[in-house]
Amino acid sequence: MLYLTWFGGTSEDLFKYGVINVVDTTQFFLVVVDAFGNGISSSPSNHPDFPRITIGDMVKAQHQLLTQSLDIPSLHAVMGTSMGGMQTFEWVTQFPTFMDRAITIVGSPRPAAYDQLLWQTQLQAITQAADAGNAEEAAAMVGMISTLALHTPQYHALHTPVSQAGSFIHAAQTGVSRSMRDTAAQLDAMLSHDISRRAGNDITAAAKSIQARMLNIVDRQDHMVTPEPALQLSTLLGAETLVLDTHCGHMTTRCEGERIDRAIRQFLSAH
């Protein structure tokens, strides 16, 4: 099995937050890969002449790692959360016969208009800071924008008292510790992500190329990655789908973790 990292996430994060615990490693050999641009893998922060990258580039490199370095000819499953889900959607179209199953969690086969506005806003903040002499000056703004989208307003109305607004804003401003150049590289990759590009930008045609059995998990109130593109693809595929509807939004993975894990385990073990 292959587990992929989210936007800004690292393989260490997958272990630290326990998200890989859903995989029974007594049954499956688990491979965890750091995506390009996360500061651990090849990234602008550790390669001065780092080129623009795409989600497709990430997946192509992962395929080369598995087949050429690890001598793995096929996978039982590929899975990932958020940008990891985007990589998973790319996997099932770029290498459709390589895996039997695929699981996406709050991911997307292509960004909706709202997603593009959100990510472009963050990318523009970094670009403007870089033009002014220091891209890292954008970290506070990028952090606040992310915090706006990770949960819903209703979540904060219930869980963030007005008396804590100052500390809440401060945490958002100081919560991004990664390089802004790395952040920009992954934002750019997500903005260009679209699995229909090989099929004349026809998502129906792209769906016909997918051979893996899929489980797509979304939250209707996700403000970070709009769920409709994944739901549309699920309908075209007749794929298994878990639709959550929580104030947690994109962070439904933490609020509904047990329910998500149960669905994943059932999907992986089903015949």
TrEMBL record:
<dbReference type="InterPro" id="IPR029058">
    <property type="entry name" value="AB_hydrolase_fold"/>
</dbReference>
<dbReference type="GO" id="GO:0016747">
    <property type="term" value="F:acyltransferase activity, transferring groups other than amino-acyl groups"/>
</dbReference>
<dbReference type="Pfam" id="PF00561">
    <property type="entry name" value="Abhydrolase_1"/>
</dbReference>
<feature type="domain" description="AB hydrolase-1">
    <location>
        <begin position="16"/>
        <end position="251"/>
    </location>
</feature>
<protein>
    <submittedName>
        <fullName>Homoserine O-acetyltransferase</fullName>
    </submittedName>
</protein>
<dbReference type="InterPro" id="IPR008220">
    <property type="entry name" value="HAT_MetX-like"/>
</dbReference>
<dbReference type="InterPro" id="IPR000073">
    <property type="entry name" value="AB_hydrolase_1"/>
</dbReference>
